[in-house]
């Protein structure tokens, strides 16, 4: 079952994407979060949902019942349904018969929620990772160039604001002439 609800707790800002609350997760909740977090992203299968930072939490709501909170990369993200179904399937296979996936829109997902491991995987896959945005109200990054994931050059040009998905732009490196996707900063 997939539902949408507001969230009240802010994200941690650590690239984990997990919402912290006043109560620590139980050992079983942490295990189920690892299982759900290991689900590959349907649009970027090189990344897991944990790498992407969209998995906000897993809570046991009763015997054999779990509620998973998930924040899409943007409000109209078409991959949410596939993510939810894949999470349900993974937790069913792990012995949880009743799984509810709740989509929360606040706090909004940010590219800062992508883990360092996720950024490394994007680069190895040939996608330029988004530049870190830093803390809200903090200093603005001076590095405006996008680094080519193939050769490392910062001499790149924008070909299209949209690529294979709405969250990526298409760029080309002037040094190696290879086109590449750039995961846009949000």
UniProtKB/TrEMBL annotation:
Domain PaaD zinc beta ribbon: 143-184
Positions of region (Disordered): 1-21
Alphabetized Pfam families for the sequence: FeS_assembly_P, Zn_ribbon_PaaD
InterPro entries reported for this sequence: Fe-S_Maturation_MIP18, FSCA_dom_sf, MIP18-like, PaaD-like, Zn_ribbon_PaaD
Bias kind Low complexity: ranges: 1-11
Domain MIP18 family-like, residue spans: 38-104
Protein name (Swiss-Prot/TrEMBL): Phenylacetate-CoA oxygenase subunit PaaJ
Organism: Streptomyces termitum
